[in-house]
Amino acid sequence: MSGNEHKYINEAFETNWIAPLGPNVDEFEKEIAQYVGVNGAVAVSSGTAAIHLALLLLGVGKGDKVFCSSLTFVASANPIVYQGAEPIFIDSEPDTWNMSPQALERAFKDALKDGNLPKAVILVNLYGQSAKMEEITVICNQYGVPIIEDAAESIGAMYKGKASGTFGKFGIFSFNGNKIITTSGGGMLVSNDQEALQRARFLATQARDAAPHYQHSQIGFNYRLSNILAGIGRAQLEVLDDRITARRAVFQQYYDALSNIPGLRFMPELAETFSNRWLTALTINENETGISVIDILNALSEENIEARPVWKPLHLQPVFKERKYYSHNKNESVSETLFNNGLCLPSGSNMTDEDIKTVIHYIKQTVIKRKERVDMLRI
Ligand SMILES: *Cc1c(COP(=O)(O)O)cnc(C)c1O
Q1: Are residues 227 and 101 in the same domain?
Q2: Domain of 303: which CATH number?
Q3: Pair 232, 99 in one domain
Q4: Do 130 and 160 share a domain, yes or no?
Q5: Which ligand 1 atom minimizes the distance to the CA of 126?
Q6: 61-100: pLDDT as tens digits
Q7: pTM surpassing 0.85?
Q8: Residue 247 host element (H or E)
């Protein structure tokens, strides 16, 4: 927390706005819309709820197909299944670790052949890095299929001067506890289409008709954000730019200390993009370093330092094992390589230089120990 949260929470208490509506909700929506440069925003209870609403607004229903990035958290795809639609997973490409335009193109060609184009494309900006938006937008426009930009991890990131989350018909952000700014739980749906956003508010408030009695003509959801949590969000948004500066500094320290080790490669930042570096991620080539991701995870864990593998691609998840998948090339699955060799380091905005140095020390030690063992065996 930044310290300012209490001010907004107290306002909510003093005015008795303890509800999933109120002044903090209204202001938080305006402030987010202004920050990223869109016409409007709808504050909701989670990023997952925002994705679900976006699918509902695009009319995704039973039997429809939706293309979705494979290398992501499961929440990107779950709402597709809530709607009874079929997720089809698209691989990453190496420059951004995000959706591969050529895999997307192949998926579209097949769908066109089958006469069954997807209703939407859910595109994820992993760990704060924007996907190749230009290429992907051209392809989706060619087929007339709208994009939902899952910017849950990339709030504050930029692509060619435009904010992450504002490229698709809809964009979504998450304020879950693990994200760069948080309301403990929460999310935001953004768009330039005010009419659609108004409909999102309606669906997120149990689809209550404009009648004095409680009348409902369709099924709705209870997806609005609490006015208390929106107050936390307002204070968090005030420090988002500082958080990004801090996260990028964490990345830079790791990069300066470790990037010269052969076989370690940090997640790239595409030219003309600005990542929020939510998480510092890198790959470890076992042939070059002699160590695996597991070796580093274990070495750090022994020192009570928590690191994580990168997301397990969704096409490899047991729950999605029957689903279609388009790899980057016929014989190259980039997301699987990233999963097998990828690692996320501790990246919190509040890490001290000392914390970062400690992590660096144990990573270096793991590499050196292994090298000594190999050299000894050679002798
Ligand atoms: C966190 C996250 C979500 C879901 O957000 P919640 O607010 O936790 O529902 C969706 N997509 C991605 C890529 C995420 O990292």
Answers
A1: yes
A2: 3.90.1150.10
A3: yes
A4: yes
A5: 13
A6: 999 999 999 999 999 999 999 999 999 999 999 999 999 9
A7: yes
A8: helix 240-258
Strands 170-174 and 187-191 turn out to be: antiparallel
User: In the structure, which protein residues have their CB atom closer than 6 angstroms to any atom of ligand 1?
Assistant: 46-48, 72-73, 75-76, 124, 150, 152-153, 174, 176, 187
The answer to whether 93 and 132 are in contact (CB under 8 A) is yes
pLDDT tens, position by position, 218-256? 999 999 999 999 999 999 999 999 999 999 999 999 999
| 151 Cα–ligand 1 center, Å | 8
DSSP assignment letter at 288: H
- Statement to judge: residues 257 and 234 lie in one domain: no
Q: What is the DSSP letter of 263?
A: T
Reading across the β-sheet that carries 158-159, which strands appear in turn?
162-163, 158-159, 273-274
The Å distance, Cα 114 to ligand 1 centre, comes to: 32
Q: Which of 240, 266, 301 is the last residue of a domain?
A: 240
Decide if 297 contacts 359 (C-beta within 8 A): no
Residue 200 belongs to domain with CATH number: 3.40.640.10
Atom number, ligand 1, closest to the C-alpha of residue 125: 13
12 CA to centre of ligand 1 in angstroms: 26
What's the total number of domains in the chain? 2
